[in-house]
Amino acid sequence: MKIMVAIKRVVDYAVKIRVKPDKTGVETQNVKMSMNPFCEIALEEALRIKESGFASEVVAVSMGPSQCVDTLRTGLAMGADRGIHVDSTATLFPLSVAKLLKALVEVEKPTLLILGKQAIDDDCNQTGQMIAGLLNWPQGTFASKVIVDKEKQVATVDREIDDGIETLSLDLPAVITTDLRLNQPRYATLPNIMKAKSKPIKKYTPQDLKVEIKSDLEIIQVTEPPKRKAGVMVSSVDELINKLKNEANVI
After folding, report:
1. How would DSSP label each residue in 194-230?
2. 164-171 and 174-178 as β-strands: parallel, antiparallel, unpaired?
3. Is the torsion defined by CA of 138, 36, 60, 151 positive or negative?
4. Which residues, in sequence order, are bridge partners of residue 35?
5. Which residues form the Electron transfer flavoprotein alpha/beta-subunit N-terminal domain (predicted)?
6. Rg (CA), the chain
7. What number is the average pLDDT over the span 174-179?
8. What angle do CA 56, 62, 67 make, to 5 degrees?
């Protein structure tokens, strides 16, 4: 059983985002980049499934410019067996990513495709659902627990919904997207970081995969949210109640 995991290079979650002066996007030059946190969770779950004996190989996939290789190396250091880089300088929106993943699935033929439920740079939460639709595979989104039965070729997924926990039984092959509470990703150890340097990374281009990259979205403008007003300190509950009653814009 082979597991494919999609990982994305994004601005690090701890970085303060700055909008470009021309408002066409956010600054990424000289900004710390890292693996999308939800993708880390997806990779960790794939590695745990492999360590449980239910999978023989974990393949990490990243799409974008050449710097994505650094993100792949991080994934290899965490424990992925090999990497695939789809080299593209074009802006990749969810549908394009889903089409590229579909082409890679047809080449690699994994039994399970695991993605983070969303990326923290655009919060689209679309790619997993789109790739499941393109492949006509069952999907379990927002997974908070995953159990794989290799003999029955079934994955059981617990997912958090408004009413509580929903449990799905998915016939393999399937697509799973991961939520925050699924696991705690491991840190890459120094020996594994050194080993990752010799693990193979195969390069494709969208042309190799016969996928035309075209945007179905147009970004008109990127602006910062309005700044919050300074808070007001009150000395008593009575003063707080008075402000709430008499000052309509206090909160």
Report:
1. HHHTTS-EEEE-TTTTT-----S-------PPPPPPP
2. unpaired
3. negative
4. 9
5. 23-213
6. 21
7. 95
8. 130
Name residue, tokens 């995953």.
146
Residue 90 CA to residue 111 CA, distance in Å, equals 29
Q: Residue 226 — φ and ψ, nearest 5°?
A: -60, 145
pLDDT at 57 over 60: yes
65 preceded by cis ω (within 30°)? no
Q: Which tokens belong to 47?
A: 């590695």
Do 120 and 10 meet the contact criterion of CB atoms below 8 Å apart? yes
pLDDT, tens digit, 9 for 90 and up, residues 213-235:
887 778 888 888 888 888 888 88
> What global pTM score does this model have?
0.84
Phi/psi of residue 247, nearest 5 degrees: -120, 100
State how far the Cα of 54 lies from the Cα of 64, in Å rounded to an integer.
Answer: 30
CA dist 15 and 68 (Å) reads: 18
For 91-145, the pLDDT digits (tens) are 888 999 999 999 999 999 999 999 999 999 888 899 999 999 999 999 999 999 9
Backbone region of residue 33 per phi and psi (left: phi > 0; alpha: psi in -120 to 50; beta: other values): beta
